[in-house]
C-alpha cells in the first residue's frame, strides 16, 4: 500500500505547480485586481510548504493522546480563516462580520485539534464547537451577510452567493471527514488521500473560481465610481446655473 507520506509529497507537488500557474494568471489580471489574487497564490504556496514538511516528518510533536503537525497547522490556520473571510468580504458586509466569521473558523479548527488529541469531556467539547460553529456560519452567511450582499450590484451579489455556497459545501464535507476521522473509521492511507483531495478542492479550486470571477469586484468599483461622478454632476449643475444667473 502507498504510504501516507507519499500521498502528501504528491499533494505538495500539486500545490507547488498550482501556485506557479496561479501566479502567472494573477500577473495577467489588471493591476487593480491583482491585490485580490496574490493572497490566494500565497495560501496555495504555503499549503505546499506545510504539506511537504508534514510528508517528510518535520514539525511533528506529541500532545496528550495524539500528535499535531506544524505544517498542517500553519496551512490550515491561514487558509481557512482567509477563504471564509474572503467569502464574507465579497458581500460588502462590515469588517465586524468578517472578523466574526474568521473567529468562528479559528475556533472550529482549534476544536478539531482538541477533539483529535484529547479524550472525554475535552474531546466532546471540541467536536461540539465544530458543529455549533458551522451552524453559526450558515446563519451568518444566509442572514446578515446575505442581506449586505443584496445591497450590492447584481453581479457581485451573485459572486457572493456562489462563493458562499462553495465554501460551505466544501467545509461541510470536510467536517464530515473530520467526524469520521475522530471516530477512527479511516485507515491511514484513506485518511491521507481523502484529506488531501478535500484540501486541494478548497484551496486550489476556490482560488481558480475567484480568479475566474474577480472582474466582478472591478465592475462593482467602477459602478460605484460612475455613480459618485453622476451624483457630483447633479450637485454641480445647480451651482453652475446660479453662477450664470
From TrEMBL:
The keyword Cytoplasm does not apply. Gene3D superfamilies: Rhodopsin 7-helix transmembrane proteins (1.20.1070.10). Keywords: Membrane, Transmembrane, Transmembrane helix. It is a multi-pass membrane protein. GO terms for cellular component: membrane. The chain crosses the membrane at residues 6-26, 38-64, 70-90, 97-115, 121-145, 166-186. Coiled coil: none annotated. InterPro entries: Arc/bac/fun_rhodopsins. Its main location: membrane. Residues 222-245 are annotated as: Disordered. It comes from the Archaea. It is found in: Membrane. Belongs to the archaeal/bacterial/fungal opsin family. This is Rhodopsin. The lineage of its organism: Archaea, Methanobacteriati, Methanobacteriota, Stenosarchaea group, Halobacteria.
